[in-house]
C-alpha cells in the first residue's frame, strides 16, 4: 500500500499538545500512514478569539504550502473553526487539506438525523454556527452545548471535563434530541471513547475526524484523481503575480512558490 | 491490515452489469478489501420510475440484512436515487451502508463551491433534487443536465455517451458555473476519467464514490466505533416484534433476524 | 351529485381498526361518497419503523393500482409517514391519492401561523420532520410533542390517551406557541373533537384530513380535470416495460396493468 | 346536503367581470352552493399597483365582515396578490375566507414537483414571489412567465391571450421544467381548459381554485369544526375597542360589529 | 449643511404620543434636520390587530404622499409592523420612507450575530416573524420575548415596564443567546438607554432607528442619487390611471397626484 | 456638528488608488467628516485570491486597531470580500468598522426587491455569494454578472469598462430582473453616476456605500451609544492574554493594546 504522509497542524504558538496528538493519531492511523504533528513558531496559545485566528493566517498557510512542497499528501488544520481551510485549498494543487468542523459534520450527518456540538464557551457558537450553515447542515443541528471552559482548561482536570461532557451530552440527547455528538474543539481529544460508551451514541472526535478524512481523501486523489477543482472559487493564485510582487519575500516564505 | 468485505448491490432484476462493476471496483479497491457484486433475483431492469424502486424494497433490504449476517462489513446500494438507504441503516446494527448520491455529494461539496449532476432523463430530476436538499446541498447545486438517455442506453454506444457527457458537462461548467460534475447514475460508470481529463474538473463516479466511502466508513467503525446512532430516527426495529408477527415468514426471509 | 368511491387503506397486516375507521369516516363523509376501508393481507402491525414501511411497498401500491382499476375515485394511505404517496401518484393516472401528513399540513397552514404535531414516540420525529420540510412547512412548525406511546397503545386506555394529548397539546400552545395541533398518527382517530373543545384551537385528525381532502380532489378532477401532472417527476412507468419484464408476474399482481 | 353560501369579491371599483365570473362559478359549483359575485362601490379598475390594493383595504374587509354577518359561509378575495387575506381571517370568526394564490399553490404543490406562474407584467412578480415564499412553496417555483399584458387586456382579444399563454406556458414546461401552470391573475379566467388540453399539464385557474377551496373549507368547518385558530396571530380584535373608539362610525360601517 | 425635513407619523387616530415623540426626536436629530410628528385624523388607538392596520391604509399613504408634495425629504411610518412600507415606497418618487422593523433589523444585524425582539403580546409575533424573514434576518433571530402588555400600557407605569424589559431582556441574553435587543414597538420609546446601561448590550429603539435611518437615506439621495428603484416591484402607478379613474376624488385626496 | 474622523483602507500593498479615493470620498463626505485613505506597507496588489486576503490579515487588523487608538471614529475595509470585518469588530470597542458588501447589500435590499452584483471575474463569485447568504440576502440576489476583467484593469481604459458595465448591467435588469445594481469591487469607483443615469436604476458604489455607512454608524454611536455588542461572538480578546503571550511583540505591533 502506498505511503501516505500527513501533517497535523496545531495552529497555535506552543507545542503543548503536539506529542500527545502525535501519539493519539499514531494509535488510529492506517499502517501506511506517516503522521507528523507541528505547531506554529509563534502565535496565540489558543484561537478562541477570531483575532487570534487572523494572526496565524500567513504562517498557517505557508506551513501548509511548505508541506505540499515537501511531499506531504495531506494536511489537517487542527482547529474547529476550520481557519483558512478555503485559502489552503486554493493554494494547494496536489495536497489534500482537511479541517475538523467540515470532516466531523459530514460524518455526523451520516450517523444520525441531528447532532449537537459541545463547545467550550458561548463565545465560540456564532462563528461555528455560521460554518454549520455554510457546510449545509443548519437543519440537522440540534444544539450547541457549552461547558464554560476554555481551550486551555480541558486537560487540566480530565475527569472534571469528562463528567461535564457526559452531563451536557446527555442533555443534548434527551432535551435537544441530538442523535450524534460532536466535540467542538480539537483539544477535547481523548474523551470520545468513554463518552460513546456511557452515552450510547456516536461521539465525533475533532482530531480524529479530519485526520481519518485526510487519509480517505488522499486515497481518492491517488486512486481516482479527485482533488479540489481549480475552475472557479478555488483557482490558485498565479505564480507570476506572486513572483512579480515579491510576495514570497515580503512574507518571508522564500522558495515555497515554485 | 484488517480485511474489509464489501457488497455492491445492483438493485435490479438482471445481472448485466455485475461482472463489469466487479472488475471496475476491483481496480479501485484497497488491498485488504474483498468485493462482491450482486443483483436481485427478480425486479425491474432499471429504477427510473419510483414504482420500480418501491418494488425492490423488501428484497433489497433483506439482501442487505443478510449481508450483515454473513459478515460483510459494508454494503453499497447501487442506484443514484439512494433507495432505502435510511431503512438499511435502520435495520443494520454493525454493517456500514452507503449510496451514490450521499457519498458523491459529500465529496463534491469538498472539491468545489458548486456542482452539476448529469442525469439520463428529466424525469429523474425532481426526486434527485429532493435528495440534494435533504442532504443539505441545495445551495451548492449549480444545475441538473439531462442527456435524454435511459439507464439501459449508456453503454450501448459508449463514445456517443462520452461525447454527450463532455458536451453537457462543458455547458454545466461554463453556463451554470459548476466547479465539479457528478455522474447521476451508477450505470454511467467508466466515463469519469476521460471526462476529468477533457474537462479539467473533478468528475465524481457514482459507483466508486459510495464504494470508497464504504471502505472509509468501515475503517471508522473498526477503529473508532463510529456507526449509525441507534438513539432516534435510526433505532432498529425490535426482534421481538418481527418474531411475534412472523414478519420473517411473511416476507420469506427466514433466519435473518437473530 | 356524482358518486365518489373512496378507499381508505390501513397499511398494516391486520384488520383491527378497519371497522372503526369505516364507521368514523361514514359519519363524516359527503352523502354521495361510498367509503371502503381495507388493510393489507400481510404485514407488520404498525409502521413505526421505516423497515416496516418498506415491507409494505408492493402490496400497498398494488392495492392502490387495483383500486384505480376497480373504479375507485380516490384512495387514502392511512399512515402519517405518508408512505409511498409519491409512488402512488406516479402509477395512478386517474385516481386521486392522498395521505395524512400532506393533507393535514395544508390545512394547518391555513388555520394558523404555526402548528405542533403530536407523535407517539421520539423515534418518529426525524422522518416526519423531513416530510414537514419537503412539503414546505418547516418554518411553520412550532414543535413535535411526544406522548411516549406506541401506535398500538392509543386505544388501550382512551381516557389516559386523551388526558395526555390535552396535557401535551396545552404545552404546545403555551410553551411552543402553536396555534394549531395535528394528531401525528392515524390511530389517534377519535380524539380531535374533545381536544378541540378543551384546548380551543383547531385539532387536525389524521384520518379525516386526508379523507376529506380526497373527496375535494376527486371533485376537482371530475369538474376541472385537475390531477397529478404526468410531465416530469410523476410520469407513469410505461406499460410496455412492465409487460416486457413480466413485473406483474414477478410481483404476483396479474391484470393490474392494462 | 347543507346549503353553502359563497361570496366571490372582485376587489375593484367596477362591475365589468361580475356577471361573467358568476356564470363561470355557477358552471363549476356544487349543487348545494349559492354563489354571489360583487365588486366594490368605488376603487381602482385593477390592482396591479400595491397602492391600489391598499386603497381597497377598508371596503374589502367590511364587505367580508358584512358577508359573515349576512350568513355567508365563505368569501373569496378575487385577486392573485391575496390582498388582506390575513386580515380577513383575523376579523372573521365563523366564515371561511380564501384567496387565489394560497389556494392555487396548495393544489400545484400536490399535482407536481414544480410550477410556473403566468403573470401579466414583470411588475407583479416580486410581490407574488414573496407570497410564494411565505406560503412555503419557494423551492417548488420553477419560474414566473410574463405576458406583458395588463389585467384589463386579457379579455380584449381572447385568442391573442390564449396563444400567448400557450407559447409562454410551453416555455415554462420545456425550459423551466414546470410540471404545473398557475394562471397568476383572476382575470385570466376562462383559458385554463384549452391550455390544459393543448399543453398536457394541469393548469390552475385563479378564480376556480379559491372558489372550490372555499366550498371544501366550508364543509370542514360545518362537519369538523375546523376554522382559523383564534389563539395567536389571528386573534380577532375585541368588539369593546371597536365600539369604544367608534371605529365603525369613523369608517362608516355601522352595525357590522355585533 | 442642507436642511432635511422629516415627518414622523404615528399611524393612529389620536395625538397622545405626538409631542413626546417630537421632543424625543428633537433630542436625537442632526442639526440640519427639521422634524414634525403627526398622527392620523381618525383611526384606531393602536395597531395591535392587523385589521386596525388595514383601516389606516389610505390615510397613511395619503399623508405620506402629501408630505412628499409639501417638500419633506423623509417620512417614518411609526409602527413596528412596518405597515404599508412597500406601498409608500411605490408611490413616492423622491421622498425617503422608513419604518421601524426594517431599520432596526439592519442595525441589529450589524451589531451582533443574534437579536431578540421585545414585544407587547404574543399576538404580534407571527406577523413580525414574517417580516424578520422577509427582510432576510430569520437566521439571526434568537427569540421573541413578550411582556404581556398592550401598546397603551407601556407608559402607564414606566418603572414597571422598565423592570419587565430588563427581566425579559436578560433572559433573552442568557437563555436565548441574544447579543442585541430590539424594542418591538415604537411606543416603547424612552427605555432603551437605561436598558443598554443595565444589560450591557445594544438596545435598538424603534422610534430612533427609523428616524436616524431616514436622515441617512436622505443624505444618500441628495448626495448620490440613491433612492427606490422604479424598475420592477416599486414602479409607481401611472398618474394617468389615477386621474382617469378619479381615484383622488373617490378617496378624497385631491391634488396629491400631480 | 461633532467632527467624524474616518479612515478608508485600501488593503493592498501599493498606493495607486489612495489619492483618487481620497478625492472621491472628499466630494461625498459630510462637512464635519475628516477622511484619510491609506494602503498597507506591504502586500499583494489586489485581493482577487483568498490567499492574498489571508496575507494581509495582521497588518489590516493592526491598522484598524491603531486607528482606533489614534482617535478615528470609523474605519472602512476597502475590499468587496469584506475581509476580516468580523475580526475588526471583535477587536474594536469604540470605533465603527464597515465594509463594502455588507453596506451595499443593506442599501440594495432597501432600494429594490432584487439586485445584481457586477464582478470582475467568475473566480470571485463563490466567496461573494457566501457573503450574500451570510448577510441574509440570498433570496434577493438576481445574479452575478462578470466583466472578465481584473481589479487592476478597471481604470486602464475607463470608457471600455463603462461600456461593459452598461452592457452587463442592462442584461442584469432585463434578463435577470435586477432592480438594483451593485458594483462588486471598490476599484470600480467612479462609474456609478453614469450607469445610474443610463440604466435608470440605483447603482451602488462599493467605495461610497461603506464610507457613508460609517458616517451614519458613527453618528449612532455618538448619539445613541449603539455599537457592536460585546456579549457573544464579538467579545474582545482579553488584554491580559495578549500581554501575557507577548502577541504584540510577536506581531510587531507594540503599544496598540492598552
Automatic annotation (TrEMBL), chains A, B, C, D, E, F:
Organism encoding this protein: Formimonas warabiya
One Pfam family named in its UniProt record: Asp_Glu_race
Name under which the protein is recorded: Hydantoin racemase
InterPro entries referenced in this protein's UniProt entry, alphabetically: Asp/Glu/hydantoin_racemase (IPR015942), Hydantoin_racemase-like (IPR052186), Iso_Racemase_Enz_sf (IPR053714)
One of the record's GO molecular function terms: amino-acid racemase activity
Family that this chain belongs to: Belongs to the HyuE racemase family.
